[in-house]
Amino acid sequence: MVTAGTLQKEHFFRTPDQLRLLHDALLDLAGHYHWQLEAWAVFSNHYHWIGVSPADAVSLRKFISHLHTQTARALNTLDATPGRTVWFQFWDTCLTFEKSYLARLNYVHHNAVHHGLVPVADQYAFCSARWFALNADPTFRKKVLSFRHDHLNVPDDF
Q: Are 92 and 155 in contact, with CB atoms under 8 Å apart?
């Protein structure tokens, strides 16, 4: 699981176009670096994602660096603020216990609700909740949704 935040929790990705820029870059670069995303949510000042690593998991740092460089440059071009620092840092956690993994999948899918952006997770366009509802095996989806996500210790004070 990866969480990243903007510098000083600044809401740099405010508009739908800016959020789409970050969302699409995350999905595109995940494929480029052979990370299989299973849940994702991007917001104005942070993002979360859960993915299965490729055989060479050391690509994570390159993937995140590429994502942050590409999105900061594009955002700064849109905002006419060349050289502005956008990203602060990222945190990653290797999920090794099934219950922890399932609870965090549910957490990421419902993060937009947690932040008060939508009343129902699949209404938020910049996360995987709608994709998960439409594409996940119904038995697996039911299992994930059964896990509580409101008491997890995930850095998310954004």
A: no
